[in-house]
Design a protein that fits this description.
alpha/beta; 3-stranded mixed sheet; globular
């Protein structure tokens, strides 16, 4: 089948690209074109509705995988228009085209749609209550996709990291190399998730869609909103401590920096962050036999990849 992958240069998109090729021809698109881009790569500003429509009508994808997102959480507070354009309007356009052309859509959302005031893992059915513009825009994207009536799966996740791109793991390693003592927030908790595990979960969804008997009246079990995250609940401080421990063992760092746990009140930011970002992944397990991957093994693999590259 023809597949359109948006945001292909990002953490998740770059992990998805080789996996999606197993299902058909993949046309990858992002704002820029990397040096190693293949012939089926298109540089495109996705906020340009006209050019996006032309691309969709030319490619006629049977599956759209939308990883494009505006993730500058603090900047969204002062630039909400761009946040909503990418996180809400773009998914609405993709979903509308998918509905009109009988295509499927996979889209990604965030734990930030919740207010973080719970103390149990959030279910898909729990009422969203975003506390910042970024969360508002991601929820608006979810709502637009659902309202379109297209066949879709929305995968909510949390604290995504990888060996490339912009993420907490690479930021911590860069700071550690400066030799400074670090203060890390210890009152926000979530489930760090390796981008590749989220990509593998997406691949399993697609495979199920291809093989499931949708004549059994249970098609709704394979669509809608699903939660996926890896298997450990940690604070940012706990996460940083584990990163540095593994980095020293792997030779990425000579020594771990001095760490001090602090409350988030010591780091005031324009956007409020949820204190509790833990997602219950039971529904995706029941529908697709997808279960949370090991945080320990995943982070070890990422650190080993960084060590092998010897550059961050």
């Amino acid at each position: 089948m023809n597949i359109l992958l948006t945001g292909a240069a990002g953490q998740l998109g770059s992990e998805l690209l080789p996996l999606l090729s197993a299902f058909g021809r993949v046309v990858a698109t992002d704002r820029g074109t990397p040096d190693n881009a293949g012939k089926d790569w298109i540089g495109l500003d996705l906020s340009n509705a006209g050019k996006l429509e032309i691309l969709l009508n030319r490619l006629r994808p049977e599956l759209i995988v939308n990883t494009a997102a505006y993730t500058a959480v603090d900047q969204a507070e002062t630039d909400p228009e761009i946040s909503f354009e990418i996180n809400a309007t773009l998914p609405a356009r993709l979903a509308g085209w998918a509905k009109r052309n009988n295509a499927r859509l996979i889209h990604y959302s965030t734990d930030y749609v919740f207010n973080g005031k719970s103390d149990v893992a959030y279910l898909e059915a729990d009422t969203p209550d975003p506390q910042n513009v970024y969360g508002d825009s991601k929820l608006a994207g979810e709502t637009a996709i659902g309202a379109s009536g297209c066949r879709h799966a929305i995968l909510r996740t949390s604290w995504v990291y990888s060996s490339h791109g912009k993420n907490f793991v690479l930021s911590m390693l860069r700071l550690a190399r400066k030799g400074l003592a670090l203060k890390i927030v210890n009152d926000q908790r979530g489930c760090p998730t390796w981008a590749r595990n989220l990509a593998l979960a997406s691949s399993a969804v697609i495979q199920k869609w291809q093989t499931a008997d949708f004549e059994d009246g249970n098609i709704q079990n394979y669509g809608g909103v699903f939660h996926y995250c890896d298997d450990r609940v940690l604070s940012w401080y706990d996460f940083a401590h584990k990163i540095f421990s593994l980095a020293v063992d792997a030779g990425v760092l000579q020594k771990a920096p001095e760490l001090t746990p602090v409350p988030s009140s010591q780091f005031p930011q324009p956007a409020e962050r949820p204190k509790w970002s833990v997602l219950n992944a039971q529904r995706i397990g029941d529908a697709f036999d997808i279960h949370p991957a090991s945080f320990e093994q995943s982070l070890q693999t990422v650190i080993n990849k960084i060590a092998g590259r010897n550059s961050i």
